[in-house]
Amino acid sequence: MTSEHTRLSAALRELRSGAGLSLAALAERTAYSKSSWERYLNGKSLPPRQAVRELCRLANEPDGRLLALWEIAESQWSGRAAVPASSPPADESPRPLPQEVPTPVRTGRRHLGGGRLPVVLASAYTVVVGGAAALLFFLLPDSEAENEPPPASVPFSLAPQCHGAACEGRDPMRLICGIGPDSLASYRTATGAHVELRYSKKCGTSWARSWGTEIGDRVDVTAGGPTYGVRIRNKDDAATFIYTEMTEARPGSTVRACFRPASADGERECFEARVGGAATTTRPPSPPVASGPRQ
Fold first, then answer.
1. What number of CA atoms fall less than 13 Å from residue 128's CA on the CB side?
2. pLDDT confidence of residue 80
3. Where are the alpha helices (DSSP H) in 169-276?
4. Cα(62)–Cα(11) distance, rounded to whole angstroms?
5. Strand (E) or helix (H) holding 4
């Protein structure tokens, strides 16, 4: 269990205790069983995002801080904080090479040379863990922050690690762009999956995240330039949030996301939103209802 997961579990236990909620009460008033809540509260498994929101609702507590803790813990749990070293499938055209910036974090999907791999992994681990620890310090309530000093050596600031074109094709969570973004639009597909377009003003980028997906589903995003996509590879991907890489966006840009289901007969579904416009929630159109003969 990572330190981020430990922190999240402790915060959930404290919230439950302060609200006087038993495991039976949680099971009765939410969609999760007593055994599930026991695992979530004791750090045996990572709770779903909705479970965190439900506990905050029952405790009459704003969910912003705990959801931020969950985002960091989930990124570590799912392995997306690790340096990717896989290349795109053979049946896809190569992705645009991300623009490099002077940073110790490597986030491209290119193969890494064997001799450099241990160094790159070590650097990435130091940056991710150090940055997450510093972020958790600022997210803690004042009473906790007084008793827990910040890390002695933080490799980088909490500011986003890229902006605009420098973020192209890179991971929004690892580059600190995924903290507190705006939601431009959300869409529920015909298969029941959810896709959300997000925008970071600080980074000047947009990306898509999805959940409730199935193995083999794919989500793509573009803002008029390169298209970046992510495929649901396994059951772990299907059980959590999955993020595309970032694409540069600015006020007035139109961002478009497309969902392609794994089933061969499934249809591609697309939706779009404008940066600076009102957030929207859309659903696939209902099929036409055939009318019977008039009486």
1. 27
2. 58
3. 235-238
4. 13
5. helix 3-19
Amino acid sitting at position 158:
L
Identify the DSSP state of 153. Answer: -
Q: Which amino acid is at 266?
A: G
**CB distance 165 to 248 below 8 Å:** yes
**pLDDT averaged per 10 residues, the chain (length 295):** 82 87 91 92 90 90 82 75 43 36 37 40 46 47 40 50 93 84 93 94 94 94 95 86 93 96 91 90 63 45
pLDDT at site 286: 59
Structure tokens at 70: 């969950």
Report the candidate in 189, 188, 187 with the shortest Cα–Cα distance to residue 197: 187
Tell me what pLDDT residue 240 has. Answer: 78
**CA 146 to the chain's CA centroid:** 29
Can you give the C-alpha Rg of the chain in angstroms? 21
| Cα 285 from Cα 266, distance rounded (Å) | 14
Give the total residue count for the chain. Answer: 295
**Which residue from 26, 17, 22 is spatially nearest to 55, judged by alpha carbons?**
26
Query: What is d(CA 274, CA 281) in angstroms, rounded to the nearest whole number?
Result: 13
Q: Which helix (H) or strand (E) holds 27?
A: helix 23-29
E strands, 165-225, are 182-188, 194-200, 205-211, 218-222
Evaluate whether 259 touches 278 at the Cβ level (below 8 Å). no
Q: Which residue has the tokens 């827990």?
A: 148
